[in-house]
């Protein structure tokens, strides 16, 4: 008997609330469906026609941090990156503003011998697409002669 009282209590209020909920659902569904239809009608040519997309080759620069361990130094003139440049793709205004891409951070304090690393390529601009996502970086490290170490400590 309690279940019947629970259902029967405020029966018309419950029916009215249910009708409002269904009407709201159809209204929202119609709004969402019409927005999707408008989006679907745009062709790729229309979307691409708004922007002038270009490709351009830009150099890749290593991004160093820290300093070499005592008694060692990186020969920066001999650092090699393969490939040394990467093709980027995007809207003309953005692509023309990019002068170079950078590698992931290279911590110089980790290297006491020459090393070859495979690193990711990064840009501060998020709308660019890269031809290659990784580069190989050769980092030549040499030992500093004892005389130069002592001379630099004496300064």
Features:
155 residues, alpha+beta, RNA Polymerase Alpha Subunit, Chain A, domain 2, 2 domains, seven-stranded mixed sheet, two-stranded antiparallel sheet, 5 helices, 9 strands
How is this structure best described in words?
- The protein has two domains: 40 residues; 99 residues, RNA Polymerase Alpha Subunit, Chain A, domain 2 (Beta Complex).
- It has 155 residues and is an alpha+beta fold.
- It contains five helices and nine strands, in the order αααββββαβββββα.
- Strands 3-8-6-5-1-4-7 form a seven-stranded mixed sheet. Strands 2-9 form a two-stranded antiparallel ribbon.
- The model has no long low-confidence stretch (mean pLDDT 81).
Give a quick precis of the structure.
By secondary structure, the protein is of the alpha+beta class. It contains 5 helices and 9 strands. 38% of the residues lie in helices and 34% in strands.
């Amino acid at each position: 008997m309690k279940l019947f009282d629970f259902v029967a209590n405020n029966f018309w209020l419950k029916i009215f609330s249910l009708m409002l909920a269904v009407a709201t659902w159809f209204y929202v569904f119609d709004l969402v469906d019409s927005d999707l239809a408008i989006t679907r009608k745009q062709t790729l040519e229309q979307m691409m026609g708004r922007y002038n997309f270009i490709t351009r080759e830009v150099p890749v620069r290593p991004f160093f941090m820290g300093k070499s361990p005592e008694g060692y130094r990186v020969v920066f003139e001999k650092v090699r990156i393969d490939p040394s440049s990467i093709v980027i793709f995007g809207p003309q205004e953005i692509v023309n503003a990019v002068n170079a891409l950078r590698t992931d951070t290279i911590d110089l304090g980790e290297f006491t011998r020459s090393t070859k690393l495979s690193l990711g390529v990064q840009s501060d601009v998020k709308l660019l697409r890269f031809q290659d996502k990784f580069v190989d970086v050769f980092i030549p490290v040499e030992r500093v002669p004892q005389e130069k170490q002592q001379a630099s400590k004496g300064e």
